Amino acid sequence: MLHICFTTFSRYQVLVAGALLACSLAACDTSTGAGNNVNNVNNANNANNANNANNANNANNVNNLDPLQAAILTPAPDAELLEGKTLHLSATISGGVPPYVAGWDLDGVSLAAGENPGDTVIPECGDRTLTLTVTDAAGDVATDEIPLRVLDLNAGLRPYFGHLHSHSGISDGEGTPDEVLTWARDVVGVDFYGMADHAEQMSDSEWALVAQKTAEYSQPGVFVALRGFEWSHPWNGHMCIYGTADFTSAISDIWISYIYDWLVEHQGLAQFNHPGRENGVFDDLDYEASVAPNMFAIETGNRGNGNAEGEFLPYYIQALDNGWRLAPTSNQDNHSLSFNSHRTAYWAAELSQDSLLQAMRDRAFYSSDDPNAEVMLRVGGVTMGGLLTPAAQGPLEFQVKVVDDEPIQRLELVTRAGVVAAMTEPPAGTTRFLWYPVVNVSSDGWYFLKVTLEDTLDGEGPIQVVVTAPIYIRF
Ligand SMILES: [Ca+2]
Ligand SMILES: [Ca+2]
Ligand SMILES: [Zn+2]
Ligand SMILES: [Zn+2]
Question: Which of 178, 254, 288, 353 is buried most, with the most CB atoms less than 10 Å from its CB?
C-alpha cells in the first residue's frame, strides 16, 4: 500500500500541505497494525478449526482476512484549493481479497481510478464531496469520503459590461438623456453607461440635466448611469472625465498642464480617449506623477476599432511602460443610437455607481471586443489593476479564468514593451479555461492578459481580442 507523497505545492495550498503530514503519519502507522493482524489471524484459525472441517481453503482464507477498508490519504478533509488546480489523490486500501478496483468521484461524477491516481485537476468550484469506492475480488465494497472546498477564482466578483464614452444630442450625438439612457438600458442591455458629451458644446443647465438623469436612471443591481464630459484638444488629444462637480473645455484650458492641474484640483477620474488620433498624444503619454492617481484608463477600443484591429493597443503598452497605472477600455464613442459588440467591463461584487467609481480608482477594468467574455486575472489576493509587492524575487504564479460562449483560442501574459511572458492555447472548442502561468519576476513592472477568442456570434470574425488591466509589480 505504498503511496507516493507529492513534494511540490504552492503557497496557496497550505491545507494540502497538511495532507502531506497526514500522508507520512499514516505510512508510519502501518507497523503498529501488524501485531493485531497476527492475533486476528490466529483467532480466526481457531474459529475455523472449531466450526467446519469441510470448508474449502479459499473460503477459509476469505474468512481469515481483515475486512476490506478504504481510506483517503490526500487530500486532507476540508482541504481548500482553487478551481482548475491539481489535487493529489492517494489512498490506502487494506483487507478483503486483492486485487482491488478503486474509483474516485466528485459529487457522484467519476474523477479518477486506482488507489493512487496522483495529480488530478478539480474543474469547478463549490463545496464538494470526494468519494473513494473500492471493490475487492470477493465483491465486497468499502468507501471513504471527505468534504472539499474548491474556491472560485473570481472570488465572488462578477463582470459588468458597459461603456465609458458616449455622446447625446446635448453635443454632437443623438437623443435626449432620457432617450439615450432608456435605449442603453433596454435596447442595448448594458449594465453601465457613461455619458460624456463634448464640454465645449454643453451648457451649465445641460450639465445639470445629465446629473439629474444619470441619478434617476441608476438602479443598483439593474443599471448604472454616470455623468462625465469629453475634453477635446485638437493637438494633444481627448479625454473623458468623470466624478467632478464642474466641467471645463479645451477652449479655456489649452495646455496639457492646465487639464492635469484641473483634474487634481477637482478630483476627477479621467480616461485617455482614442490615443493617437490627435498627433500630440498627450506629449507622447509622458508620465506626470502629480495627476497619475486621477488617470485611470486608456481606450484600446473606440467605435469599431477594437483590440483585434490593434490601432490603440500600442499606446496602452507605451503608457504602462511610461509609468502610468491605467486600465484599458473599449467604448462606442457613439454619436447615434447604434451599438457594436465592444464593451468595457469591470469586476465588482455588485452593480452600483459606487462600485463603478471604485473600479475606476482600482483600475479593475478590461477591454473586450466581445460583449460577454468573462476574463479574470489575479495574483493571490490581488485582482487586475491592483498592485502586488512580492515577498521576494523569483517565480510568481498568476491566476487566469476565461469563460465565454465562443471558443477560446489563445491566452498571453504580456509584459513590458509588449513582450509575451507566457502563452497557452487551450484545446479546440474550449469555452471555459483556467490557467496558472508561472513567470520569474525580478524587477518592477506590469503584466496584463490578452485573450484571443474565436468570434462566431457577433459577426466580427474570425477573432475578437480582450485585454485586461495589469497586475503592477512593485518591490
Ligand atoms: Ca462571447
Ligand atoms: Ca464573440
Ligand atoms: Zn474624442
Ligand atoms: Zn467622443
Answer: 288
Hey, what long-range contacts does 211-217 have (CB within 8 A, 24 or more apart)? 213/177, 213/178, 213/181, 214/177, 214/181, 217/181, 217/182, 217/185
Digit-coded pLDDT (tens) for 99-142 = 999 999 999 999 999 999 999 988 788 999 999 999 999 999 99
Instruction: Give the closest ligand to the alpha carbon of residue 404.
Output: 1
pLDDT tens per residue across span 75-101: 999 999 999 999 999 999 999 999 999
What is the pLDDT averaged over residues 299-319?
97
Q: Residue 73: is its pLDDT beyond 80? A: yes
Dump pLDDT digits (tens) for 432-446.
999 999 999 999 999
Q: Which value, to the nearest 10 degrees, does the dihedral of the CA atoms of residues 224, 228, 229, 231 take?
A: -120
| Separation of CA 118 and ligand 1 centre (Å) | 35
- Whose cell is 466624478? That residue is 243
What pLDDT score does 262 carry?
Answer: 96
Ligand 3 centre to CA of 302 (Å) is: 9
Distance from residue 201's CA to the centre of ligand 4 (Å):
12
Q: Which of 386, 344, 346, 385 is nearest to 367 (CA)?
A: 344
Q: What is the pLDDT of residue 366?
A: 98
Q: Residue 334 has what DSSP assignment?
A: B
Ligand that comes closest to the CA of residue 276: 3
What predicted TM-score, i.e. pTM, was given to this entire model? Answer: 0.84
Q: Please list all protein residues whose beta carbon sits less than 5 angstroms from ligand 1, which is an ion.
A: 370, 372, 404-406
CA 233 / ligand 4 centre spacing (Å): 11
Residue 303: is it exposed, middle or buried by C-beta count within 10 angstroms (0-12/13-18/19+)? middle
Among all bound ligands, the one having the nearest atom to the CA of 239 is: 3
Please tell me the number of the ligand nearest to residue 345's CA.
1
Half-sphere exposure of residue 432: CA atoms within 13 angstroms, side-chain side:
6
Q: Rounded to an integer, what distance in angstroms lies between the CA atom of residue 79 and that of residue 208?
A: 55
